[in-house]
Specification:
The protein has one domain. Helices cover about 45% and strands about 10% of the residues. The chain is built from eight helices and four strands; from the N terminus they run H-E-E-H-H-H-E-E-H-H-H-H. A two-stranded antiparallel ribbon has the order 1-2. The protein has a two-stranded parallel ribbon with strand order 3-4. It is globular, with a radius of gyration of 16 Å. About 30% of the residues are buried.
Length: about 170
């Protein structure tokens, strides 16, 4: 609650941000995060320029993701799994890639860990949107399919520990 209050003061808006995401079976749900961006247009790959000073700190330590524990409690998400995407990605999966929609999305997971510096990676691309769709997204799909095919409690535990200490 303290972080929400600080984010409210920092951004001059309610400190909790919600956005529609695609979940299990393609169901749309609202994901919750602590607000980190100024109220201005945002460009993919350059969100760091829109983030407040506090917001950059929260994003660095992934503290902006804490409200997703509410998503876990209400059953929209699990602790580990593929990250839930906005419309236009997971909802458009086809064929064997749709296995990703068979499980609840996670707060963390193997693709989340690999791409923990995704914003930084996108910021150096000439066309961040194209790079995200053709390179990063395709890689995330493959990583998440492999995760699902090899799932175990110990694998989830490994990703939780890596997320905390990495």
């Amino acid at each position: 609650m303290i972080l929400v209050l600080l984010a409210s003061i920092d951004t001059k808006e309610w400190g909790v941000f919600s956005q529609e995401r695609i979940g299990k079976a393609g169901k749309v749900f609202k994901i919750y995060k602590i607000r980190t961006l100024k109220n201005e247009p945002h460009v993919l790959g350059h969100l760091d320029k829109s983030a407040t000073r506090l917001g950059k700190w929260l994003r660095t330590y992934k503290l902006d993701e804490l409200p997703q524990l509410v998503n876990v409690l209400i059953g929209d998400m699990s602790f580990v799994g593929p990250r839930p995407d906005i419309k236009g990605f997971a909802d458009e999966l086809e064929g064997e890639d749709r296995i990703i929609l068979g499980i609840r999305p996670g707060v963390t997971g193997p693709a989340t860990i690999k791409y923990k510096n995704e914003e930084e990676l996108l910021s150096v691309q000439d066309d961040p949107e194209k790079y995200n769709r053709t390179i990063i997204w395709r890689d995330k799909v493959e990583i998440n399919k492999k995760y699902i095919e090899n799932w175990s409690f110990y694998l989830d535990l490994k990703f939780i520990i890596k997320s905390i200490f990495n």
